[in-house]
Design goal:
Shape: globular
CATH architecture of the largest domain: Alpha-Beta Complex
Number of helices: 12
Strand content: 25-35%
Oligomer: single chain
CATH class of the largest domain: Alpha Beta
Length: about 350
Amino acid sequence: MKAIGLLDYLPIDNERSLFDIDIPKPIAKGNDLLIEVKAISINPVDVKVRAPKEKKEESPKVLGWDASGVVVAAGEECKIFKTGDEVYYSGSITRPGTYSEYHLVDERVVGNKPKSLTHGESAALPLTSITAWEALFERLRIDPLKKEENELKTILIIGGSGGVGSIAIQLAKWAGLHVIATASRPETKSWAKDLGADETIDHHQSFKQQLKTINTAEVDFILCLNNTDQHWNSMADVVKPQGKICSIVENDKPLDLNVLKSKSVTFVWEFMFTRSMYNTADMIEQHLLLNDIGELIDAGILRTTMNKRFNPINAENIRKAHRLIESGSTIGKIVIENFE
């Protein structure tokens, strides 16, 4: 089957950084589904894993996590899906990825594809939707059913126009929160507002001063999707006493937790691969939340965050998508559709 792999971790402008290969078609066993991949999307984690480093693979490594496709086979222990089902998912970072015509994935982290979306539109959603959902509703403990209570609370989403921010804004508004998102360019501000952000501020400037201009002294929740190190002290400065901060971006230097102590602030990480990486007892929660996302999409409450698409799925187009993400200027998600 066709796939895209790497042997050396090279700059993306090098044609050998990602190249077209042919590998054996895998066989579904146990809890695994074999998916015929129709569309994939590219995430910052793809770029981070592929980034240049002193390492060499003995055989081609296949990256990629987001996918939408059709079940063509199911392992003997599968109970949720059957052949012919249309699905979307983000897989596991510890297994071969979705840059391949056929892909194995544990059915417990797979959702039913939204009926109202194409495969491309669906492929934009899984990793970012799981991340945003877990961050908001599991890590920050926001209850989406308590909308009246949430209307009195404010969340600051740092990095509102990226992939996770684009779905987090929508989910936070659905939950009833007042949403302030960071965006620094006219087009990113417009994108965030169009998705439902009540206000935007510039993450390159003082949070505290900008919040004062919109009559907001402090915020109840902060979701950090960009440069935890850079924004650490600013977050501590504007979070309310007994507030909560969640970040998805690892720190490069030690974080001073003492700046949170006097306010009794909760800080928590979100990593959407935790469940699949550690085979946790609650892996099924990702199946359930992806189904919830799909229902919200089909009800017109949420929308796809796809903003750019390429065709077909090959090394050239994947390198192009990686290059765009490395530029740091992408808005929403980049999708690549169809093997030829």
